[in-house]
Amino acid sequence: MDYTNFFLMKEELSLIGVMLILLVYDIFSGEKGKRHFQTLALGLLGLHTAVNCLPREAFDAFGGMYSYKPVMTAVKTILSAATIIVLMQVNNWLKDEERRNKQGEYIYLTLSTLLGMYFMISSGNFLLFVIGLEMASIPMAALVAFDKYRQTSAEAAAKYIFSAAFASAISLFGISLIYGSTGTLYFDDLAGSITGSPLQVMAFVFFAAGLFFKISLVPFHLWTADVYEGAPTTVTAYLSVVSKGAAVFVLFSLLTKVFGALMEEWQFILYALVLLSITVGNLFALRQKNMKRFLAFSSISQAGYIVLAVLAGTPQGLTALIYYVLVYACSNLAVFGVVSIIEQRSGKTDIADYNGLYKTNPRLSVAMMLALFSLGGIPFFAGFFSKFFVFMAAAEQGFYVLIFIALLNTVISLYYYLIVVKAMFVKDNERPIETIRSDRPAQIALALCMFGVLCLGILSVVYEGIGQLAL
Amino acid sequence: MNFLSIFVLIPTLMMLGLFLSKSRKQIQAVALTGASLLMIMAGVLTYLYLAERVAGNSAEMLFTADTVWYAPLNIHYSSGVDGVSVAMLLLSAIIVFTGVLASWKIDPLPKEFFLWFSLLSIGVFGFFITTDLFTMFMYYEIALIPMYLLIGLWGSGRKEYSAMKLTLMLMGGSAFILLGILGIYYGSGATTMNILELSKLHIPIELQRYFFPVVFLGFGVLGALFPFHTWSPDGHASAPTAVSMLHAGVLMKLGGYGCFRIAIYLLPEAAQELSWIFIVLTGISVVYGAFSAIVQTDLKYINAYSSVSHCGLVLFAILMLNRTAMTGAVMQMLSHGLMTALFFALIGMIYGRTHTRDIRELAGLMKVMPFLSVCYVIAGLASLGLPGLSGFVAEMTIFVGAFENPDIFHRVFTTIAVSSIVITAVYILRVVGKILYGKVENKHYLELTDAVWYEKFSVTVLIVAIVALGSAPLWVSNMISDSLIPVIGQLAR
Question: Any CB–CB contact under 8 A between B138 and chain A?
Fold first, then answer.
């Protein structure tokens, strides 16, 4: 075995390095050193992101087990940048009395899931893929259960781990069928040996179900609302952005690379799933009273739009997908940032509690409004561009009917985003949420998200850069 | 970036200035300066445009500029104007200027109000200067979204309901437009989204049959096409004065302009084949809007339904697909924009004093506020088409053009549409007689004051424009009519 292969996995190695340093520091630092723990974590992660943000030549390592493409750098950078933002938002929450001794765990668990996603993204073999998937799921359950004495958090974790285990089992069953019918698990070999026999179609359906669960497409979405509501808000933010983004990218590359021969079948399946996710997600979001549940359903419907780009299956679709994930990360993390700041300071999470927020917290309200407009696809916020590009990618393949339904759904989604805007700006409240002074890292995180929301669309460089990598 | 981009730049700078301003004085100063600059620039543009034409420049669009924006997707930021867009820019500048004056004392949150108002202006001006499908659609949506907060926050009556209804219906329309744009782009196999380039390509007729109704319907929603006009009465009635003015005066014209610039121009074969469907619908709009206005008792509702009728006439004239009628359509856009803005401004001023818009409670206003009342009469006369004012010129041109179509179907519908003139006279004269003349029944009204300087200024500007358009229409109509040659050429190919 050629050990130099290890050094090719630069991204993963540097992330592991970050984790080890943090682990050692967490153990050996005293009470005083603990105070700087988060700063150190953010700094190291920032360094890790910066070092690995330049794409390299494509290569295979370990005989094809690990496979790298330049576009993966874009995805990994987006994911780790999003993780940094999440960690900035979590800062204040982790300093609480009951969590102060567990900051190490939180960051360590988060980074483990990130590492899992890295492996999932770069895998060239189903075995590595499954390891990555599990590594991304199991620490996630621990994160969901982070407030373990709060019943909802524990309950959410139980729901998450059961559904995740079930999904993995089904996925593995699918993989075993694939192995049975082709005799290999390497993606490159599979591409040639999948011919579209009924067994392989069945294998694909089982396998894909596991990924659909991660992306929380309808009808694999039933865990989403409960977990989102019960989990600590920052974990929910992470779950809805990073975890989803990684899974969608992997779905795209597997479908086009490995299951290219089954194109007709997966287009049919995805068509139905997109339709269901967008519509069902929207219709349920209409009825929600709790902010976090509301965002859960909104994220289900957003996932539908992302998968619309997967459906296109072209390089243009891949570019639109990654760009959408980036924009979605900015907008959604901004919304979650505001929600978590408000939840930490006032404990309120109902939409009705936001009534009259503009009078007391103008800045938070404006940030939230801009992010919601971006999610709703209003120009000149980035969300408009990302939606438009997804629709373009799908239109190129002729999915006009689906686009039309998706477009009508954007109108519905605008309705419920406007409900929140209305609550903040139009409605009166006798006892509005008091004026909140948020902590510096959370402010910076919010500012970064706002920068993304306002500038990503207007600066075409970002899209074009991703486009060049995705070719 | 070129000369035209200044129309987007000024409102952007206005937003920046508003953002930094501290007191109401500063806010007013910034808003007025910006609006005046826009008006001056619109005047300069008109002059330059006409001078360029006189000098013999016969290009389809003038002052064109093109910057690549999203290279892989062939999205450019391209701008250019022809006679129609120049006319529209002039109209928008006038309405924005008078709108700023009409909302001089807006309360509460003046800063936020003018911020959103400027954003709305960016959308409107941007829409008229671009020649790229993507940018056009983007500006269209930018113009829509501020409406929600403008109505929701500063409106009156059932404002939350109306704001939501308006936003969602117009966004629904924009969903159709987006589908149409994608269809046109991929259907034509083009490598550009520039309208001028796209018009040279032939989109297969099978695709045109799908996308013409889609695009026309999409823009038609904003043009108050029956049965998708229902947002208009509620929205206009609840909106604050300046927003009603801008929305009915300019934003509804985006619909007509889009139908003409995208639906007819890029999909001409299907337009000829399927125009009958929309002629029927717009015919209904024209007559139904006028009849509805008769039975309303709220001044704003009357004017909103009257807008449905008049804007219906715009779309009706566009669908006649000949040069005279289309010239009339653009003239009608101008004329309706000016007079409906005047109406809404006056209604706002009357409402600000009497705190009611119910015509059953108003009477004898001529005695207490003679200036406003006389202006109201002038607006009414323009609306019912009195020669010498703008309405006459526009409607006359439309009907003459419509009658040029020799077949029974077009003539029957033209006759039906013509009848709206009579119905318009009924509701205008009824309202004028009821609220302006007679005895003052409510003693409180005797203490009310007439218009103050900024109100007088705003109203006078509009009346001057209406009279100018009505008494000397030729230079505008020639400018418009010359720019329609390419469109007619498309239809004849």
Answer: yes
Interchain contact, A411 vs B171, CB within 8 Å: yes
- In chain B, what residues touch A411 (CB-CB under 8 Å)? 168, 171-172, 175
- Cβ contacts of A398 on chain B, cutoff 8 Å: 186
Q: Give the list of residues 6+ apart from residue A74 with CB closer than 8 angstroms, or none.
A: A55, A322, A465, A466, A469, A470
Is-contact A169 A130, C-beta < 8 A?
no
Buried b / exposed e over B10-36, threshold 16 CB at 10 Å, is bbbbbbebbeebeeeeebbebbbebbe
Helix (H, G, I), strand (E, B) or coil at B189: coil
Q: DSSP string spanning B348-404?
A: HHHHHHHS--BTTT---HHHH-HHHHHHHHHHHHHHTT-TTSHHHHHHHHHHHHHHT
Does B276 reach chain A within 8 Å, measured CB to CB?
Answer: no
Cα end-to-end span (Å), chain A:
32
What is the ipTM metric for this complex? 0.89
Pick from A379, A400, A460: which is nearest to B70 by CB?
A: A460
Q: Answer whether residue B249 shows pLDDT above 60.
A: yes
Residues of chain A contacting residue B164, judged by C-beta atoms under 8 Å apart: 415, 418, 422
Q: Does the distance separating the beta carbons of B175 and A414 come in below 8 Å? A: no
Q: Which helix (H) or strand (E) holds B65?
A: strand B62-70
- The DSSP 8-state label assigned to residue A66 in this structure reads E
The token pair that represents A185 in the structure block: 């698990």
Chain A residues within an 8 Å CB radius of B221: none
Average pLDDT over residues B172-183: 90
Query: CB contact, 8 Å: B190 with chain A?
Result: no
Q: Which residues of chain A are within 8 Å of residue B159 when distances are taken between CB atoms?
A: 426
Buried b / exposed e over A20-53, threshold 16 CB at 10 Å, is eebeebbeeeeeeeeeebbebbbebbeebbeebe
Q: Are B296 and B305 in contact (CB under 8 A)?
A: yes
What whole-number distance in Å separates Cα of residue B323 and Cα of residue B329? Answer: 10
Q: Give tens-digit pLDDT for A82-112.
A: 999 999 988 878 877 777 778 888 888 999 9
Count of residues for chain A?
471
- Put simply, the answer to whether B145 touches A378 (Cβ < 8 Å) is yes
